[in-house]
Design a protein that fits this description.
The protein is mostly helical. The chain has a single domain (30-346), classed as ABC transporter involved in vitamin B12 uptake, BtuC (Orthogonal Bundle). The chain is built from 14 helices and three strands. The chain has helices spanning 26-48, 56-63, 69-104, 111-114, 116-130, 136-158, 165-188, 192-202, 211-236, 242-247, 252-274, 280-292, 299-320, 324-346, and strands spanning 2-4, 12-17, 20-25. A three-stranded antiparallel beta sheet has the order 1-2-3. β2 and β3 form a beta hairpin. The N and C termini lie far apart (44 Å).
Length: 347
């Protein structure tokens, strides 16, 4: 590893592993390391809190296979899956938000604002209330399918010889409002018990999740994230503008549609597992960009910030006994209002 700086240019760090060479700004590297340390600290704190409080030595002993059986079961079998869901879900939402904000070139471009969360919720409600199934696999499949179909509808309605970011957002908001109406109809036209279960799922929570749900979620993430990394290079060039990207040999609409589907898939698998979790995808890329001062698409930083934000929201939710989805709505709603006001003045 080596570091170098040129007058007036950011200080760079060069990392070499075998024949692979990475160059990264020193500020970006330091920021990511600090965020990872914060994430680890939050993770340990999350394992310590709950109905039965534990101290640090008990948590570390349980994680290394020692300690009492009941404490080890509490930490490893109950609290650790929830922690892993929060971290991996935050990564997925952060990366998804960065994709759509780059796609629309607008800080309001987020899957929950554009309506893809609502589409996933509609798909899950159809499975639970129309088909009458409580199967996790079917509910998850319905959520993913609903999110992808919503994305395709928004894409086709917004397409006018190409995709313009602001039109994409406006169409998405309109489709989202329509889907919210459908979701409300489904809830009020079914039995009270079924509606109560669906509404509870719609608040977004990790409390009922275990390794049975974590395994397929992790496998999906392992498949999607490498595909995002492969498509990222050409997609980042779209921030230069469609004409410049075409001049560089990028197939603009194909790359844009590919990243749209991948971004929706990241949001949909989180929604399928835990229910709709709003505003993390909106906030994480913006916070990451301000921390690292990145001029372009920075998916790794957005993913790490997303993990920190969602884990912190879950930690707060456990302390005051509410679901993580409600915490992200309260915290993210204020940020969303500030973004709207700022964008209004800017325009």
């Amino acid at each position: 590893m080596s570091a170098a700086a040129v007058d007036g240019a950011p200080r760079m760090v060069t990392l070499r592993v075998g024949d692979v060479l990475w160059r990264l700004e020193l500020r970006t590297l330091v920021t990511r390391l600090v965020l990872v340390v914060l994430l680890v600290a939050l993770g340990v704190a999350t394992l310590m809190v709950g109905t039965f409080e534990l101290d640090l030595s008990q948590v570390l002993s349980a994680l290394t296979g020692g300690g009492e059986d009941n404490i080890r079961k509490l930490v490893v079998e109950w609290r650790l899956p929830r922690l892993l869901f929060a971290v991996l879900g935050g990564v997925a939402l952060g990366v998804s938000g960065a994709i759509f904000q780059s796609l629309t070139r607008n800080p309001l471009g987020s899957p929950d604002v554009i309506g893809f969360d609502a589409g996933s919720y509609t798909g899950a409600l159809v499975v639970m209330l129309v088909l009458g199934s409580t199967s996790y696999a079917l509910t998850a499949s319905g959520a993913v399918l609903g999110g992808v179909l919503t994305a395709l509808i928004v894409y086709l309605l917004a397409y006018r010889g190409g995709i313009q970011g602001f039109r994409f957002i406006i169409v998405g908001i309109g489709v989202s409002a329509f889907l919210v109406a459908i979701n409300s109809y489904l809830l009020i036209s079914t039995g009270a018990q079924e509606a109560r279960a669906a509404v509870a799922w719609g608040f977004g929570s990790f409390s009922a999740l275990g390794y049975e749900q974590l395994l397929p979620f992790t496998l999906a993430l392992v498949v999607i994230l490498p595909l995002v990394a492969l498509a990222r290079r050409g997609f980042a060039q779209l921030e230069l503008g469609d004409d410049a990207a075409k001049a560089l040999g990028v197939r603009v609409e194909r790359r844009r549609l590919t990243m749209t589907v991948l971004g929706v898939a990241l949001t949909a698998i989180v929604t399928a597992a835990a229910g709709p979790i709003a505003f993390v995808a909106l906030v994480a890329p913006q916070v990451a960009r301000r921390l690292v001062r990145s001029p372009g698409l920075d998916l790794p930083s957005a993913g790490i910030v997303g993990a920190v934000l969602l884990l912190a929201a879950d930690f707060i939710g456990q302390r005051i006994n509410i679901t993580v989805g409600l915490v992200t709505v309260v915290l993210g709603g204020g940020y969303f209002a500030w973004l709207l006001i700022r964008e209004g003045f800017r325009r």
